[in-house]
Amino acid sequence: MSKSPGAIFDGAQRRARWAEAQDGPGNRRNPRPAPRLSRPDAADWLLVEEVLAGLRSRPKRLSPAHLYDRRGSQLFEAICDLPEYYLTRTETAILARHAAQIAACIGPQALLLEPGSGSSRKTRLLLDALADLAAYVPVDISRGHLLEAAGALQAAYPHLEVLPVCADFTQGIALPPTRRPPARVAVFFPGSTLGNFDSSQAVGLLERMGRTAGAGGGLVVGIDLVKDPAVLERAYNDAAGITAAFNMNLLARLNRELAADFAAGGFRHEAVWVPAQSRIEMHLVSLCAQVVHVAGERVEFQAGERLVTEHCHKYTDQSFAAQARAAGWTPRQSWTDPRGYFSVQYLEKV
Ligand code: AVI
Predict the structure, then answer these.
(1) pLDDT(191) > 80
(2) pLDDT tens readout for residues 152-182
(3) Which DSSP state fits 44?
(4) Is there a domain that residue 253 lies in?
(5) Which is the most buried residue in 171, 219, 325, 338, by most CB within 10 A?
(6) Is 192 in the pocket of ligand 1 (CB under 6 A)?
């Protein structure tokens, strides 16, 4: 780790080191014809500061949001189809089986808001059951993905008003005006994405969703349930190594986007069940003592040192209800699968 004075938040120094890391030493006399990166803009700088702060913390930790570049998103889609990764299949089956009841909870003429909508694949199960929806508002940070998915939905549901919003849903969402005034707002948050937030962040996120939905609003949320640790660990350590590739891709992303030099074979993937926190933790474990450079900064790893890349919390009905109530939501109804692996919950903001 760099001990240079003012290293943590000295932007000018870091910019100079970043430029050198991209172009290589001696670049002014012998410039490369095609530099690896364009100059960082403001968003890149936020990313640099966040990543470096995470690499300086103990244990080293990075936000799981960084797992989802283009390649990471493709790998995650592949994970959803893995035999060991029961979550997507199980939740889809619950939604398919109970769509009519869920739609009855949501009620007529609602606005359906989906934070982190991605491909909106599961949404169709609800849309098919919600005949008189006032509007569907998918929200995603990836503009291309959002517009593509919204276009496909609009074609499949020509009478539905589809109003895509490109935004980071963790920052709160401003609802767009709709042609028909909705009777209520219902938030759809499937996929156990809530489980990737630590407890206080999850409560904050649920509170923001509650503010967006307003009094009388609804929330349909998918949560993964506590179960045999062997089943959980298998889901995140699949035999084909897709989850490992998904985790390792983070290092390739840092190499590409932050001029880092993580060695391809320097780390291994590991996902462990941590019962005290009721979560799977995804780690990258350093295979040896090594020094890595990220945006011009030195980062030391001990042999066996872990970089935490994701937390995946697993709930009981009780632990989820406590979290939801702390955020101002009242649990109304829930549905599960025959094995009790996953739960879809309906909550109301009173
Ligand atoms: C997106 N999220 C709900 C997944 C999960 O299971 O927590 C991410 C994931 N990480 C590894 N496999 C899947």
Answers:
(1) yes
(2) 999 999 999 999 999 999 988 899 999 999 9
(3) H
(4) yes
(5) 219
(6) yes
Tokens 């190594």 belong to residue: 241
For the record, the structure tokens of 235 come out as: 């889901």
State whether residue 267 is helix, strand or coil. Answer: strand
Cβ–ligand 1 contact at 87 (below 6 Å): yes
Nearest CA to ligand 1 atom 9: 76
Residue 120: predicted pLDDT:
86
CB of residue 79 inside a 6 A radius of ligand 1? yes
Which atom of ligand 1 is found nearest the CA of 271? Answer: 11
Which of the listed residues 192, 269, 314 should we mutate to test ligand 1's pocket, taking the one with most ligand atoms within 8 A of CB? 192
In this structure, the residue with its CA closest to atom 3 of ligand 1 is 193
Phi, psi (5° rounding) for residue 253? -65, -45
Give yes or no: residues 195 and 132 share one domain: yes
Give Cβ neighbours of residue 70 (< 8 Å, ≥ 6 apart).
Answer: none
Ligand 1 near 88 CB (within 6 A): no
**Does 61 share its domain with 188?**
no
pLDDT of residue 42: 57
**Does 97 share its domain with 186?**
yes
Q: Scanning the structure block, which residue is given the tokens 């042999």?
A: 303
Q: Which domain holds residue 221?
A: 85-169+178-226+315-349
Give me the number of domains the chain comprises.
2
Let me know whether 217 and 309 are in one domain: no
Please tell me if the CB atom of residue 195 comes closer than 6 angstroms to any atom of ligand 1. Answer: yes
DSSP state of 121: T
Tell me, in angstroms, the distance from the centre of ligand 1 to residue 170's CA. 17
Q: Please give the pLDDT value at position 142.
A: 84
The letter for the amino acid at 308 is V
pTM of the model: 0.88
Cβ–ligand 1 distance for 342 under 6 Å, the answer no
CA of 115 to the centre of ligand 1 (A): 16
